[in-house]
Amino acid sequence: xxxxxxxxxxxxxxxxxxxxxxxxxxxxxxxxxxxxxxxxxxxxxxxxxxxxxxxxxxxxxxxxxxxxxxxxxxxxxxxxxxxxxxxxxxxxxxxxxxxxxxxxxxxxxxxxxxxxxxxxxxxxxxxxxxxxxxxxxxxxxxxxxxxxxxxxxxxxxxxxxxxxxxxxxxxxxxx
Length: 175
Hints:
By secondary structure, the protein is of the alpha/beta class.
């Protein structure tokens, strides 16, 4: 029995020596894995950059106020709040185009757009200023318009809340 025991003891160091002498595949796999992870991270970052909401130029109250005093046919002030919100009041000279229908409406023909919303469809080069209650939905509206080919898009970030506070509680026009 002692001879068999010696053979096992002699075999073990040889097996351990062979395992130690072999290059570890885990090190290689981890190296490849980190390269794959870096490539995946880079691809995700590029995709996120493409899909990131576009931040349009922001207007202040002082820049919007003159547009309400002398409206232009070349520019639109669009309220993207829902009709029940607009019933509380709106900025003078604005038109309502709820965010919930904006994307589909921008795909309508000019005739269908006017029939549905009661005003001419903005041209892709016309100035379009979006506002909402607090500036969040108007930022989304800017992004939607840009993705639909509109180039001259502005966001009144202060929106309805700033307008009413600056106008001394005046509700503007009522829709």
